[in-house]
C-alpha cells in the first residue's frame, strides 16, 4: 500500500478507485484471481499516461531521440539540488506520448521557492538540450516542455514578483469567462514598454535555465550515454536501477539542497555525489514527449 | 455577543446565521448541549477561511516560511501609524490557505485616505519582504498579496486621482458585461504614452511600500523572530498574547496616527511604542497565504 | 406645489408619483392624516439619494472629511459665474453616499456652452481640492467626481469640438450593443498619435478646472471653514440658510455671469458679492460622496 | 400634390401613408372635415422631426444661440455653389431638436462629387462657426453636426479615394454583425502609420470646410444678423420669405455652380448675387440642433 | 442556347432555372406565347443586376459621369493584353447600380497570374480615372471599384506571395466565425512593422494600376469620347457594336497577350490594334456603378 | 492489401471502410462483380482529393502551369535528403484542386527534426518557384502552399524553439473557443518588439527554403521539363514510372540523409543519384493546387 501511495501523489479518491479498477481489469485479462503489485504498477502508468501502444512502429532514430530526450530531463533533474529528483523513465509509447520522465519531490510541497522553480525549469529544458547536443538539432518533440517552461517563467515575472527589474507586483488581469465553461483569458493591463520588459525577463530566466542544463549535460555526457544505453535495453527504469544508473561509475552524488541552482563545476572534475533516496510522495510532475499532429 | 460582533465586521445577516449554525454543528460533534465561546471562535475561522486541514502534511521548511510570511504582515501592519492593526495570526492550514493574518481598523471606515492606503500596501508586502530577508528569496506564496497590492496601487493612480503626475482624473472605462453574470472588463480609453505613465506611477507606489516594509522588518528583525517562535509553538496568536509579542522586549509602541507613513528611524534606535488596543470592529481584511496549484 | 416643482427638475410623471407615495408613507409612519411639506421634503431626498442611514457609525474624522468635501463643491459652484449655484448641502449618509451637494441652474438648459462646462468642472473638483488643502491629502471619496469630470472633459475634446488643437470633429465611434441591453462601447477609430493629443487636451482642461477650484478655495478658506462649521452642526443646509453662510461675513457676492471662468482676484482683496437667489428649476446635478467598497 | 412631393424627397410609400395619416389627425383635432395644405405642411415637420414641444421653456439666450446656429447652416449652404440650398429654417423645438435647417439639392442625386461634399461639409460646420463668431465660444449643440461631418470627411479619405496622399483605395473592413441586428463594426486592416495619415487627411478636409464657413460668415455677418432677426420673430422661415432674407439688402446672389468651393472674395466687396430658386426635389438633409442629455 | 451559355458563366443550375423563369415572366407580360431571345437577354441583365429602374430621374450631369465611368472601365480592359475584354456596357439604372460594364475572359480560368491581376486592377480603376480626367474630380460612384481593387491588391501581397519585398508567405489568420453565419474575420498575426510594409506594397500595386489606366485613357481620350457618345445615345452597347466602337477610327487593335501589363507607348503614337473577338465563356466580372446611400 | 496500406497512411477505420465502399461503387458502375486493384487505386484518389472533374475545361496554358507547379514540388522533394520523397503526381482536376503531388516518408514519423522541416518547406515552395522560373511570374495557385509553409515556419519559431534568436520558449497562448465548435484562436502574449523578431525569423526560414528550392530547380531544369512532358502526356505518374522520370538521364540519385538541407552543388555538375525506393507508409502529405474562388 505504501509503495502505491508514494507513486500516486495528488490522486483524488476517484483517481484511486479508477486505479484499482484498472488493476483488476489487468489481472482478469491475465487470468489471475488476485491483483498483484505487478498489475498495480502497470495500472499507475495507464491511469497517468494512457495504455501502452505496442503496435506503434517507431524507427530506431526516433527511439534514440526519445531516449536522449528523457535521459536529458532525468539527468538535469537529478543533478540540481533544488529540483525534484526523477523516479521513473520510460520510452514506451503511451497515449499521445512517446516516453516520459516522472519526478517526485522529497517532501510535500504547497508552494515553491524561486530556486526550486529555476532548477525545475532547467530540468524541463533538459530534453531539448540533450537532443541539440547529441544530434546537432532539436525536434518538434519538446514543444510541450517549452510551453510549460514558458508558462512557469512568465508566472515568475508576472505573478510571483520574482523579477527584480519589474518588482513585487502582478501584471495582467485574469478574466474567467464563465459563459465559456472553464476558459480563462488574460487582459493586458500594462503598457507596451512593460510588455517588452516582461519578454526580456522571461527570456533571461529561460536562458539561465537553458545554460544550466547545457553545462550539466555537457559535463556529464558519459552518464547521459549510460542512461540512454540502459533505456534502449530496458525501455523503463525506476527505483534502485534508476538510482544506480544516475550514480553510475565515477558520477558524483547529488549535492545537498543549497541556495544556488548552478552546481559547482569549476574545472569540471569535482562531481557531486548523491545517494539514491527513495523519493517521498509530493507534487509530482511529468515530462512526456508528445508526438506532434500539427505538422 | 460583543466579542463575536467585533470578530465579524462586514458580516451580513445570512453570514451570521451561517456562523451560529457552524457553531451548533461543532458543539453537537463534541457532544455538548450548549454552544460555548470555544465553538463560536472556531466557527468564525471556519466561515472566513474554511475548515482546518489537519491531515495535510506540511514540511518544517514550509511551516517556517509560512510563519515568517504571516509575521511579516503582522509586524508591518502593527508598526505603521495609518495601517489597520493585526488582531489574529495563524499558520494552521484552512481551505486553500496555509495561514493568515487578520487586520481590523480601530474605527469604522467608509473611505480611505492616501496615507492609509500606502501603509496598508506596506503591510500587504510585509509577507514577501520577510521571506526575502530571512530566506534570501521569495516563494510563490505571496501571489495573492501581490495581486491585491497591484490592484490598490493601480486604483490610486487610475480612479482616486492620487498621482500628481497623472492628475485628478480617471483612466479606463468600466464595462459591466451584464450577460456574463458579474464579470467586469475595463476598456482602455487612453494612449500608450499614458499607459506607460500609469505603469511608472504604480511601480513607484509599490516600490515605496516595499521599502517601507523592508526598513521596518530589517530594523525589528528580533521582534519578527520572536513572533515566528511563538507562532511555531502556538500556531495561532490573538488578543492579549498577540499584543504582548508585538510589543515584546524593548520594542517601541505603535506611534500615534500622523501624516507620514514612513516611521521615524534616523539611526535605527528610537523605536515606536504601541500599547495593544482591543481592536474595534470595522472593515477587516485577510492576508491568507495561498498554496499554488498553478506550477 | 411650486416649491416642490423647483426641487424636482427632470422628474418624470412616474418619479413624481413615486415622490408623493413616499411622502404618504412617511406621513402614515408618523401617524399624520395629511402629508405636510415636511414629509414631502424628506421624500425628495429619499427618492434622489435613498433612505437615511442613521444607524451607520461614522467617525469624527470621516464626518469632517465629508463636510469639507461637500463645502468645497458648494463654495466653488457658488463663486463661479457660469456654474450652477448650489441649493442644498447635506452630510447625512443616504444609500451609498456619505453626503451630497445639489446644484440647480438659474434657468432651464438644453445645451451647455464651453464656459459653463469649465465652471462646472471646477465645482466637480472642489471636493477633492478641499480635502487636499485641509488635510494635506485626498481620500477615495472623490472617485465618482473624478469619473464624471473626466467624462465631461473628454466629451469636450472628442464630441463637442471644444479643443482648438484637435479641431471641430468627433473622435471614436459609439457602438450601441443592442444585445447587451443598454451597454455602449466606443470603438477607437483614430491613431495612437491622436490618442495622445486627446489625453493631453483632457489633461489641460482638467488642470485648468483644478487650479480654478484651488485658487477659489485658498482665497476663501475662511468661508469654507464657516460652511463646514454650520454643516457639522446642522447636517443639512439649504435655502436662505445656505445663502447666508455662502455670503457670510466679508465674503464677496457671486459675480455676474461673464465670459471668463476665473474670478477676478488680483491681490486677493476684491471679493465678488452675490445676493442669494432663489434657484429656478433646471437641469440639476448631484455630487454625492460615495463610500468605496473597492478597497 | 407637387408641393408636397417637393418637400418629401426620399420618402417611402409607408412614409407617405404616415404623412397623410398625420395630416388627417391634425385636421380632425382642429375640427376640420378636410385636410388642408396647412395640416399637410405641419404633418411633414411632425414626420421628419417629431411633434412641436411648445411647453418647453427655452431661455432667451438659448433661443438666440439656436437661431444663430441655424442661420449659420443656412447662410453657408446658400452661398456655396456646390452645396444644396436651404429651403426651410426653424427654431421651434421638435422631438429632441431645438431647431433645424433643411436643404434640398436642385436635382436628384445618386452620387456626390468631391466639390459637392466639400461644400456640404462647410454648411454642416456653419452652425458651430456662427456660434463661435457671435458668442466667442461654441456649445454642445453642434455635436451631431460634428459627428456627421467627421463621418463624411472620413469616408472621402477611406472609401471614396478622394485623398491624393492615400490614393485610390479603401481602408478598413466592414463587418456586418448579423447577429447584432444592424450593427456594423469596422475592422482596422492597416498600419498605425496609415491611421495617422488618415487622421491628418480628415483633419485637413475638416479644416478647409471650417475656414470656408468662417470666411463666408465673417464676410456676410450683416446678413447672418438679418436672418436671425427674422427667425426670432417668425420662428420658421421658408420659400419666398427665406429667399428674400438670404438675398436681403446688398447681399450678392448665389454664384453659378463652378469648380471651386471657395467663393470669390478678394477685397470682401464683390458679392455673388443669387436669385432664389424654388428647390427641386432630391436628396435632402437635415441639420437639427440636438439638446444634449449627456452632460 | 450557346449564346445564352456564353452570357451566363458561373451560373449554377438554380441560377439558370431562375433565368428561364424571368424570361417566361417577361414574355407573359408582353403577351407572347413563346420566350424569344429578346426576353432571355433582358432576363440575363435582370438576374445579374436587378430590374431596370426607368422611373428613376437622372440628371444629365450624372448620366454623363456614369457614361464616362463605364467607358473608362471598358477602354482600359480592352487595351490591356492580360485583362479580360469587355462584352457589354450599359448606363441603364438597375437595382442599386447606375450602370455596368461586363467583362469575360477569352477562356475558362481556374487561377490568375500576376500580370492578369495587374491588368484587371487597371481596368477596375478605369472608371475613377476617367471621371478625374474628364471632370477634374471623382465622385462617390467608384467606391465599390476601390473596395474590390484594394481587396485584390491586398490578396496579392498577403495571400499569393506576389510582393518580392514581403516574400512567398501569407499574412493574417482567417477565422471563420461559424456562429455568425458566414462572417469571416481576419486575425492580425504579424508585427506593426510588417503591417506598414503591407500598406506600402498595396499602395505600390494600386499606384501602378492607376498610372497604367491614366496613361491609356489620356492617350486614347478621343476613343473614350466616342464610346461615351454612343453610350449616351444607345444606353447599352454589346457584341459587334461594342467591338466597333472600341476599335473605332484610327484606334489600335488590342495587342497580343504578353508579359508586361504596360502597353508600349514610347512617343504616344504607336497604337495597339486589336480585332474584336467574340468572347468565350469564363469567369466574368461586373463593374457596376453603385449609387451611394451613405452620404 | 499491402499496396493499399502503403497508400493510405493515417487512415482511420472509418476512412478505410469508406475507401472500400467507394471501390465497390466504382466496380458496380463498371459492371464488375469483383473490386479489382484498379478500382481501389481510383477509390484512394477519390477519398483523398474528391472525384475527377473530367468535364472541367482547362486551357492549355493552365494545364502547363499546373504541370510545372506539381513537377516543382516533386523535384525538390525528391532531391532533398531530409524531405519525404514523392510517390504520385497528377494534373487531373479533382474537387477544388487542379492537381496534386503526394509525398510519403520512408518510415513512420511521430515528430520532425529541424532539418526535416526545412527540407519539407523547400518542397512546399517548389511549385511557386517552378512557376516563377518557367513563366517569369507566379499565379494564385500556390496560395495554399504558402499558407501551409508560413504555418510551419511560424511554428518552428513560436512553438518548437527552433529560432536561436528567440530561444527555447513558446509565444502566443492558444485559446480553444469551446462555444465556437473547434475554432482555435491565439492570443498575443508578447510585445511588439518580439512580434517583429518573430516576423524576421519566419522570413529567414521561408527565404532559406525558397532559395534551396530555386537552386535545385535551376540546376535541374532539364529534369523538370522531362517530368512536365511526361505529366502532360500521362496526366498521372507514380511508382516505377515516377522513379524513372525523377532519376531520368544523367540525373543524380537522391543523396543519403545527412545534416545539411542544401544539396552539394559547387559547380552545378556533381549530381546526387538516388535509386527509387518503394516508399514505406508514414505521415504522408498532399500539395494540391487549389483553384481560387477569391478573385
List keywords for this structure.
homohexamer, 295 residues, disordered C terminus, alpha+beta
Description:
Chain A has 295 residues and is an alpha+beta fold. Helices cover 49% and strands 7% of the residues of chain A. Chain A contains nine helices and six strands. In chain A, the strands form two sheets. A four-stranded antiparallel β-sheet of chain A has the order 5-1-2-6. Chain A has a two-stranded antiparallel sheet with strand order 3-4. In chain A, a hairpin with a 7-residue loop joins strand 3 (173-176) and strand 4. In chain A, helix 2 packs across helix 3 (37-49), helix 4 (60-79) packs antiparallel against helix 5 and helix 4 (60-79) crosses helix 8. The longest helix of chain A has 28 residues, at 192-219. The N and C termini of chain A lie far apart (44 Å). Chains in contact: A-B, A-F, B-C, C-D, D-E, E-F. Chains A and B meet through helix 5, strand 3 and helix 7 of A and helix 4, helix 5, helix 6 and helix 7 of B.
